[in-house]
Amino acid sequence: MKIRTKIALQFTLIIALILVAFAAYFYYIDQQNRKDEFQARLRDRALTTANLLIKVAPINKKLLKIIDKETLSSLYAEKVLMFNAEDKIVYASYAADSMVYYKYNAELLKNIRQQKYVETTNDSLEVVGVMYTDQEKGDFVVIASAEDYLGKSQLQKLSKLLIYSVLFGISITTVLGFVFAGQSLKPISSMNKEVGSITAYNLRKQLNEGNRQDEIAQLAMNFNRMLQRLEQSFDLQRSFVSNASHELRTPLAGLKSEIQVALEEERSPEEYRRTLQSALTDTQRLIELTNGLLQLAQSENKERGLSMQPLRLDELIFETQEEIQTQHPDYQILVDFDEIPDNEQSVMVLGSVPLLKTVFSNLIDNACKYSPDKRAEVRIGFDPKSCFVRVIDAGIGIPQEETKRIFEPLYRAKNATTYRGYGIGLSVCRRIVDVHRGTIQVESKLGSGSIFEVILPHL
Ligand code: ADP
Description:
- By secondary structure, the chain is α+β, with helices and mostly antiparallel strands.
- It has three domains: 3-155, Beta-Lactamase (2-Layer Sandwich), CATH 3.30.450.20; 215-299, Signal transduction histidine kinase, dimerisation/phosphotransfer (DHp) domain (Helix Hairpins), CATH 1.10.287; 303-457, Heat Shock Protein 90 (2-Layer Sandwich).
- Helix content is 55%, strand content 17%.
- The strands form three sheets. It has a five-stranded antiparallel β-sheet.
- The longest helix has 52 residues, at 3-54.
- The radius of gyration is 51 Å and the shape is rod-shaped.
- The mean pLDDT is 87.
- The structure holds adenosine-5'-diphosphate.
- Adenosine-5'-diphosphate binds at residues 362, 366-367, 370, 393, 395-398, 406, 412-413, 416, 421-427, 450.
């Protein structure tokens, strides 16, 4: 079911329930009022008849019957009966009253004598019975009954009026519900259309952000932000593909021209040896580059099924330092603490040993590689929430406008092109740090050096 229909129906249902409840309440109150009023009239009638018969000097019963019948205020099917203490009829307002009397059984008379006043119904008749006591003539029971014909017909009219009003109210509510729900959901339908027209090639398209205040406008704003992120990642992907093909093409082109030159004419064994040596270097570069790309692809897929374990970050860094030192004896790596940890908890993190080693060896290797003195300083610090490792060098630095881009795959700063490398290490580092829910950032000054900082949360 569409949201519009759902909202309209819910709205109609609520209003319908309220209308029906109000109508039922009005009907009930009106019915009660009419009944009370009618029974009060019947009681007056009974008492007046008794007064006329007993208090006012003996009145002719026939005359009273005529008065009862002809009086303008007489009620529909009205009957007044009066009984003496022996339950004998002493007055009946109609001739054939034995039939009426038959209906007022002894039980009713008993009740009236006990309770002094009784209100009841008998088929369609309202019945009121009162005890009438006279000092001299004793106790009498007077029963007055009549049909509230007028009241009933008015109640019927009222119920019809209420039913029509409720039906009218419900139909109006349904129509208005549909109109208002449609109007409130209109921005969503138009957003739906706009979203439908977005493809991978027009991610630049933005949704209309309306008043930028309500929930729908905020949804549009969030969607636009998501489109921007998507576009950025598409751009990144595109530049990665073009950088990767460029990086692969250069050594391949070198290889090709070396072989072509070698084949142009007969060469001496020494010349062939040199050509093969240079082809080997290019092939080596290609292998390294492909390995780097493979490492990057693997780090993208590492999140799932990654085995994380609690580890001491300082120990991991000392091990990394040793490993690098063995490969590059000319590097000078100094590892130190900002503050000596009192307990091992301060330097514990949850992580993968091989992946974190990749991060720090990349950072330390870069620091030494891009510094003429081949020196790197590693400082380990911590706070109650996290551990941080800063890799500091006094090397060539990074141009300010490029510090953001160096984490992109295959991106290399302008001043680094004469150094060996493929621009893959830092993107691998960032991916691994992300997987560890940490952050990596850089502060650098061109010509003065750089500080790379990795922050990892404690266990
Ligand atoms: P690579 O070092 O193989 O080029 P990286 O991904 O490790 O690839 O680094 C990307 C780029 O970041 C480098 O090409 C270089 O421009 C810059 N960079 C990284 N570390 C440093 C550093 N310590 N000093 C100066 N530039 C650096």
